[in-house]
Amino acid sequence: MSTDTRFDVAVIGGGIIGLATAHELTRRYPGTSVIMLEKERDLAHHQTGHNSGVIHSGVYYKPGSAKARTCARGNQLLRQFCDENTVHYHECGKIIVARDASEIPMLEELHRRGTANGVPRLALLSAEELREVEPHATGLRALHVPNAAIIDYRKVSEALARRVTEGGGEIQTSAGVTAIRETETEVLLQTTAGDVRVRHYIACAGLHSDRVVRLSGSRPDARIVPFRGEYFELVPKRHHLVRGLIYPVPDPRFPFLGVHFTRVIDNGVEAGPNAVLALAREGYRKRDINVRDLAEALTYPGVWKLLARHWRTAAGEVFRSFSKRAFVKALATLVPEIMEDDLIPAPAGVRAQALLPSGLLVDDFLIVEKPRSLHVCNAPSPAATASLAIAEEIVDRAAPLFGS
């Protein structure tokens, strides 16, 4: 890239949301010059590349919510895109297990939500029927979600990148945005690969979304706090214990789904994630510490209010982070045959969780609009599943910019 290049629109961030947005721009506005800027050397490097690979069906989300709407639409669009671009996915099905009587009302609520959201072929199962679907799982009752599927989101991202370039867009990696200067007629984006002048830009910066907003001169309502999701994987000789996806009934007070079993697209089986506060926004290992990231987290009132509100849950997650035995004990509530020797460490992921100063987690989309830009500050799960639908809505909201 030259030291000063000009485009109509820039998309900041090369994860699946940024890629889907760039794809939607080139598809909807042919002839518009689009550039994607990604700070890493490769695309889908962070959240997308460390995703568990589940295509969610929409049973968790309140009917009528943005998450329910984009999940249903995104599921359809994603499968269609994969069919058209030879990206393999596998419909392996999911079981959500009520392990004791206290979880049955929430299980029934998930059935109601899923039905209202149009999830096909849902069925509430007895303990005996559960065993017919997952012979090694146990529980009082279960919700069967037959159309849940698995995929490799890196492969999806590669296909999206091809479509962007085929549509005339340009993708620049190793181009981290370091400063933003907006005027009445254009925006100057200073990057580590040179300056880019654009009429408009859309930021989909994931783990650094709040920082990109601040570069533009605005202060977002929330701050990104990183949570590391820690995984194990089953040794090959124990893969037979899990046919598809086995999840517990989630705690409605907390946005994480609890440790569960996930069959992955290469025929392995992951177990997790444990969710703990990461000491770096890109902290995939326990020993990864970034002083700036840690200082921002520890001086943010929202972090301490969140920990005060959920200290029991947080303590349990930290304990499991350092105790494989405790991790296995949690998994054994779903599949009792699991033993410590069945599990080996697997790569972790980091989730960009938007947190308000009040300590409340932002559990829906958070977008900041400016005269020449739109910032996606929070795109929570099921963002990967819903990426193409989210991109439609992002470009819909950004459309008035292109008239200025």
Provide a short characterization of the protein structure.
By secondary structure, the protein is α+β, with helices and mostly antiparallel strands. Helix content is 30%, strand content 27%.
Note down, in words, how this protein is organized.
With about 400 residues, the protein is α+β, with helices and mostly antiparallel strands. About 30% of the residues lie in helices and about 25% in strands. The protein folds into two domains: about 5-50 and about 155-220 and about 365-404, 3-Layer(bba) Sandwich (FAD/NAD(P)-binding domain); about 225-355, 2-Layer Sandwich (D-Amino Acid Oxidase, Chain A, domain 2). It has helices at about 15-30, 65-85, 105-115, 125-135, 155-165, 210-215, 290-300, 300-310, 310-320, 325-330, 385-400, and strands spanning about 5-10, 35, 55, 90, 95-100, 125, 140-145, 150, 170, 175-180, 185-190, 195-205, 225-235, 245-250, 260-265, 270-275, 345-355, 365-370, 375-380. Strands 1, 2, 9, 10, 11, 12, 18 and 19 form an eight-stranded mixed sheet that branches. Strand 10 and strand 11 (about 185-190) form a beta hairpin. It starts with a strand and ends in a 6-residue tail after the last helix.
